[in-house]
Amino acid sequence: MLVTTSLEAVNLDSPWHPWVRRRQGEIWVPPGGCLTRHSTQTEPIRLSIELQQQLLTILHTQEVTTAIPSKTEVPVSISFDRYPLPPQADEAAITKYCSNGYGRGVAGLPLIYSDGAAYLGLEPPQNASIATNVTLTQDANDGSFAADPINSTIPSSNWTSPKLAIDTSVGAFEPVSFSVGENASLTTTGFDMWGSLLVWISDSGVISTKWYASPVDAQNKTWLLKWNVENAASETAIPIILKSLAPVDKKMR
User: Where does the source fall among the domains of life (predicted)?
Assistant: First the structure.
């Protein structure tokens, strides 16, 4: 994708607008941020650490023309402010995250493991055999996230550090699960944290947050987490994002 001086190709109204901002008539992207395609999709294109380093060697207000790998070529204009770059990650580094869902009616509900399925909620589904809130431990080598129980009463013999898994086959709109071992029908690799957002990156470099949540009780206390490959509208599920930030306690303000 060539970076040009055309601003019309950047979708400033996309849900990714915190990472793509208009500033003094220019488009600027904070280090670690992304660009959005101008199309029916609003999936971002991330700038690599190497590319950030190259761009930041140019004066901080100067626009540049360079190449950014992308599945779809779209002209955009970018300029950078001189912010410190994030440190480069050690390839073998392992980082642990909490995960909370945000969307209409889903106000920062925490991630729950329940008998191999992923939920968001204040309590697990009824009749669950093994259920606990979990943290996600990232393996930077393959982008997989292993779940670790927060509930210390769960016997270690009952826990095998299952990995977060999604069905990425064409047209799939299936529940997110936690998978142990190899499963040809599920994808456990390619996840990443962009700031506080949990995203999935395909082999072709397309970045997605196609998380959806479907209520499982009348009080909307518990939601089934799903992955919607086509991002198709649903009458039974709402689009959400997963963040490593817990909701702000308004009582503390």
Answer: Eukaryota
pLDDT in tens, 96-150: 788 999 999 898 999 999 999 999 998 999 889 999 999 999 988 899 999 999 8
Q: What are 243's two structure tokens?
A: 């963040």
* 3-state SS, residue 221: coil
Residue of 150, 119, 26 lying closest to 77 (CA atoms): 26
What fold does the segment set 94-246 form as a domain?
Answer: Trefoil (Acidic Fibroblast Growth Factor, subunit A) (2.80.10)
The segment(s) of the chain belonging to CATH 2.80.10 are 94-246
Q: Is 243 left (phi over 0), alpha (psi -120 to 50) or beta?
A: beta
Give the Å distances, CA to CA, from 90 to 93, 95, 123: 5, 11, 36
User: Token match 């392992």: residue?
Assistant: 94
Residue 123 burial (10 A CB sphere; 0-12, 13-18, 19+): middle
β-bridge mates for residue 106, sequence order: 103
Q: What is the DSSP letter of 39?
A: S
- For 199-218, the pLDDT digits (tens) are 999 988 889 999 999 999 98
User: What tokens does 24 get?
Assistant: 């003094």
Cα 76 to chain centroid, rounded: 23
165 CB-side CA count, 13 A: 18
Distance (Å) of CA 241 to CA 99, 113, 249: 10, 17, 19
